[in-house]
Write a structure and sequence with these properties.
This protein has 71 residues and is mainly α. It has a single domain (4-62), classed as Arc Repressor Mutant, subunit A (Orthogonal Bundle). Helices cover 45% and strands 8% of the residues. It contains 3 helices and 2 strands. The chain starts with a strand and ends in a 9-residue tail after the last helix. The model has no long low-confidence stretch (mean pLDDT 90).
Length: 71
């Protein structure tokens, strides 16, 4: 199952894509820099669903919902 998790032992507890060391922050930076989903998938081995999970995580965080795992 894809999603975003927080693991204190990985990347100092920053939200990451489950099973990777890629942070939500890094994904947002890639998108802001103009990389397409396809480019991110190819370059970093993430799936479209994992990228979307990172976006949903941030969206839920901004909306003030409790953060946890967002698939």
């Amino acid at each position: 199952m894809t999603g975003v998790v927080i693991d204190e032992d990985v990347r100092h507890g920053k939200p990451i894509v489950k099973g990777t060391r890629i942070t939500v922050e890094e994904i947002l930076g890639m998108l802001e820099a103009g990389l397409s989903f396809g480019e991110i998938e190819e370059e970093y081995g993430l799936s479209k669903e994992e990228i979307k999970a990172a976006i949903r995580y941030v969206s839920s965080f901004i909306e003030g919902e409790e953060t946890g795992m967002y698939a």
